[in-house]
Design brief:
Layout (H helix, E strand, L loop, with lengths): L1 H25 L6 H8 L3 H7 L3 H18 L11 H16 L2 H15 L2 H14 L1 H12 L8 H16 L1 H6 L6 H19 L2
GO molecular function: DNA-binding transcription factor activity; transcription cis-regulatory region binding
Pfam families: TetR_C_7, TetR_N
InterPro entries: DNA-bd_HTH_TetR-type_CS, Homeodomain-like_sf, HTH-type_TetR-like_transc_reg, HTH_TetR, Tet_transcr_reg_TetR-rel_C_sf, TetR_C_Proteobacteria
């Protein structure tokens, strides 16, 4: 039973990677399931066995994107450690994830496919908002511990993530700039922390 399951998993992954390739090259609307099957080197039936529709295949790509986003959001608040040290760990992990080529590929596919579909875009934004909860939880815990001023944790989390994305995400997505070097990543994170803590730390 194990070997066939692994083959099935490999085919599923090949289909997803082929879909990302085709969506990036041709856009969501033009890409066909036939083309995805050909690129993945599997039958069209195999594609439909895994994904009953192109929308469901796209949804799986978004799920992978959200999983990548949330994987870096698991740091728990520590009352015994300096806020800056904890925040640095969270933000550096986020900036490094934003610079990952696989993550950027998924993000480009998602953004391109949602630009002309408000309904699809709204669903993506809603679900990504739900998934970016880790930093919000950390901020809320630090606030409850009396170390941050009264503030809206969701707003503050979005604010500091916006500072990161303006350097480490949007230039790469929209203008094709190369990813940030480790030194520049560190500079961006330290500057974002300076602004955040100057505004909100008690």
């Amino acid at each position: 039973m194990t070997a066939p399951q692994r083959l099935t998993d490999r085919k599923r992954e090949a289909i997803i990677q082929a879909a990302i390739t085709e969506f990036r090259a041709n856009g969501f609307e033009i890409t066909s399931m036939d083309k995805i099957a050909a690129t993945a080197d599997v039958s069209k039936r195999t594609v439909y066995n895994h994904f009953p529709s192109k929308e469901e295949l796209f949804a799986e790509i978004l799920n992978q994107l959200w999983a990548r986003v949330t994987a870096e959001q698991e740091a728990s608040y520590r009352p015994d450690l300096p806020l800056r040290d904890q925040l640095r760990q969270i933000l550096l992990a986020k900036v490094q994830m934003m610079g990952d080529n696989n993550f950027l590929d998924l993000a480009r596919v998602a953004i391109a496919a949602t630009i002309h579909s408000p309904e699809r875009a709204q669903n993506m934004i809603t679900r990504m908002g739900e998934r970016e909860e880790g930093l919000t939880v950390w901020i809320r815990a630090a606030q409850a511990d009396g170390r941050l001023k009264p503030l809206n944790p969701e707003f503050a989390a979005q604010q500091i993530q916006g500072l990161l994305k303006s350097f480490a995400f949007w230039p790469q997505i929209s203008m094709g700039q190369t990813g940030l070097s480790p030194d520049v990543q560190s500079t961006v994170v330290e500057s974002a922390m300076d602004m955040f803590l100057a505004c909100y730390q008690l």
